[in-house]
Amino acid sequence: MADIILTVGTRKGLFIGRRRGGAWEFDDSPYFNAQAVYSVAIDNRGPTPRLLAGGDSAHWGPSVFHSDDLGRTWTEPSKPAVKFPKETGASLERVWQLHPAAAEPDVVYAGTEPAALYRSEDRGESFSLVRPLWEHPTRSKWVPGGGGEGLHTVLTDVRDPRAVTVAVSTAGVFRTEDGGANWAPSNDGVSAVFLPDPNPEFGQCVHKVARDAADPDRLYLQNHWGVYRSDDAGAHWTDIGGGLPSDFGFSVVAHPHRGGTAYVFPITADSDRVPADHRCRVYRTTDAGETWEPLSTGLPDEDHYGTVLRDAMCSDDCDPAGIYFGNRNGEVFASADDGDTWQQLASHLPDVLCVRAAAIG
């Protein structure tokens, strides 16, 4: 069984767990004490893994830190890694997403609030604003979602470094095929039930997007009402929410190796944002959304109220895959067998905001 590092970003710091020889243990105390950690990335592309964390201090403001010793020590750049140019008139509130690019070894993308995309070419030590998206003609009409106006999803394509897909709450999915020079809304088929026109070109409240392991043109999307699949890299979307107890949720995760396999955590909404039917259940599809099955072996049987946020569920890169999620109850659960069975790893943590895991050699 592979050794695993598990990073759990919470409202009050970053907790790191490690699985060695099948047994889990967590470091003695959190990192970035009293900081909200909304984003973490585990960059395994180089000879030495690098961890990146987006911390948000109520006193010092947001920053991006990196570690080259699996989280034992952390470095903060002497100048802010992510900063809005003065002429934009904007101020960084938080870093929602950190994404090592699939086809460019030193490139890392950051998604922020206010919604913007940043690109780093030094593995996340400094970033520059991707201006064409920031200056997109639709931008003045973007409206913050309930959690703010965050660019929370970045997907890159191992076949083509110029192809990047992002998602913004609340603006929807945007794509570029020329390295960020031009961006187009890609929301055809995704509903915005809260707008007068439920099928706008942009303005959808997309919560998360994931890419299929076998078919890079297949994407899965969890919306504010609606679970969708695209088979053409996001140009068009099809509703696949039938068979779920609720098609509202925040997270969606694709299996790291098996095509057609993805996971969601259904939430009751809008007024009562708790697990559907008050049950702690992950739902899995193995046929690209044609059918769904509940996964609950080892999860709590009693009424449950732990909401799983958009980045609080993930997979590792093993096969069978490890699937992990944390919730706003401060609980963390893990499966080492594609979600078939679960164990609880932690409880009584602060609100879990993001979870990331990877095998370490």
Structure characterization notes:
The structure is a single chain. With 361 residues, this protein is mainly β. It has one domain (3-360): Methylamine Dehydrogenase, Chain H (7 Propeller), CATH 2.130.10.10. 1% of the residues lie in helices and 42% in strands. The chain contains 1 helix and 28 strands. It has one helix at residues 131-134; strands spanning 3-10, 13-20, 23-26, 36-43, 50-57, 61-67, 94-100, 108-113, 116-120, 128-129, 150-157, 160-169, 172-176, 184-185, 206-211, 219-223, 227-230, 238-239, 249-254, 262-268, 274-275, 282-285, 293-295, 313-315, 323-326, 332-335, 343-346, 352-360. Strands 19, 20, 21, 22 and 23 form a 5-stranded antiparallel sheet that branches. Strands 3-2-1-28 form a 4-stranded antiparallel sheet, with no helix packed on it. It is globular, with a radius of gyration of 19 Å. The termini are close together. The model has no long low-confidence stretch (mean pLDDT 96).
Summarize the biggest pleated sheet. 5 strands, antiparallel
Q: How many structural domains are formed by the residues?
A: 1
CATH architectural label: 7 Propeller
**What is the number of strand segments?**
28
Write down the overall geometry.
globular
Query: Mean pLDDT, rounded to whole units?
Result: 96
Task: State the fourth-level CATH superfamily.
Answer: YVTN repeat-like/Quinoprotein amine dehydrogenase
Q: pLDDT under 50 segments (min length 5)?
A: none
CATH domain class: Mainly Beta
**Helical coverage, percent range:** under 10%
Rg, rounded, reads 19 Å
Gap between N and C termini, in Å? 11 Å
